[in-house]
From TrEMBL:
It is found in: Cytoplasmic vesicle, COPI-coated vesicle membrane; Cytoplasmic vesicle, COPII-coated vesicle membrane; Endoplasmic reticulum membrane; Endoplasmic reticulum-Golgi intermediate compartment membrane. This is Transmembrane emp24 domain-containing protein 7. GO terms for biological process: protein transport. Residues 1-35 form the signal peptide. One of its GO terms (cellular component) is endoplasmic reticulum-Golgi intermediate compartment membrane. Potential role in vesicular protein trafficking, mainly in the early secretory pathway. Appears to play a role in the biosynthesis of secreted cargo including processing and post-translational modifications. The chain crosses the membrane at residues 187-209. Residues 47-129 form the GOLD domain. The lineage of its organism: Eukaryota, Metazoa, Chordata, Craniata, Vertebrata. Gene3D superfamilies: GOLD domain (2.60.120.680). InterPro entries: Emp24-like, GOLD_dom, GOLD_dom_sf.
Length: 225
């Protein structure tokens, strides 16, 4: 039963490190916001669930995409601690759902491939819990952000966008590669099948033409009186 822990988002960390190169006095302090990104195999006729403890009022986003397998679709279901269904979709290739936790407790979301008999799937999901902590906390501040600090915030947000775009394009590239490999396998099998059919037809034609031009000797038998 996989359990998702709260971890600082890599994009936020990258943004803070970029700003640290500009302002040496900055320190990276993990905040309450976090995200979990996982890519996993979902066998045929299987169901995989994940659990996350969320406090009331926390904004969360679930985003998923099927990378490989079959028609690239999967069932997804999200439930609150009382078992109420917050989100349910059948045979979706990709989707995103944002909600605000209405109560404290353990939230569960499941991916199901039970409708598939032969093909397994590779599924990616990104579950964001809460907001990223501010780069410059506003507590105990008596002045506005300096020009350098404002530039750091802009770089931080830009790096977060870059990470999101990179993840998106990596998923698209992996899905395209899977489709290309599957198509290449089908073309190879079809080519081998065509070659075998041509070989059988050629041998059959040779024997057929040979039978047309073969010498048929007739044997005459005399019946004596």
């Amino acid at each position: 039963m996989p359990w998702l822990g709260s971890a600082p988002r890599w994009a936020a960390a990258a943004g803070r490190w970029g700003c640290r190169l500009l302002v040496l006095l900055l320190f990276l302090v993990p905040g309450p916001g976090g995200a979990s990104e996982i890519t996993f195999e979902l066998p045929d006729n299987a169901k995989q669930c994940f659990y996350e403890d969320i406090t009331q009022g926390t904004k969360c986003t679930l985003e998923f995409q099927v990378i490989t397998g079959g028609h690239y679709d999967v069932d997804c279901r999200l439930e609150d601690p009382d078992g109420n269904v917050l989100y349910k979709e059948m045979k979706k290739q990709y989707d995103s759902y944002t909600f605000t936790a209405s109560k404290n407790g353990t939230y569960k979301f499941c991916f199901s491939n039970e409708f598939s008999t032969f093909t397994h799937k590779t599924v990616y999901f990104d579950f964001q819990v809460g907001e990223d902590p501010p780069l410059f906390p506003s507590e105990n501040r008596v002045s506005a952000l300096t020009q350098m600090e404002s530039a750091c915030v802009s770089i931080h947000e830009a790096l977060k966008s870059v990470i999101d775009y990179q993840t998106h394009f990596r998923l698209r590239e992996a899905q395209g590669r899977s489709r290309a490999e599957d198509l290449n396998t089908r073309v190879a099998y079809w080519s081998v099948g065509e070659a075998l059919i041509l070989l059988v037809v050629s041998i059959g034609q040779v024997f057929l033409l040979k039978s047309f031009f073969s010498d048929k000797r007739t044997t005459t038998t005399r019946v004596g009186s």
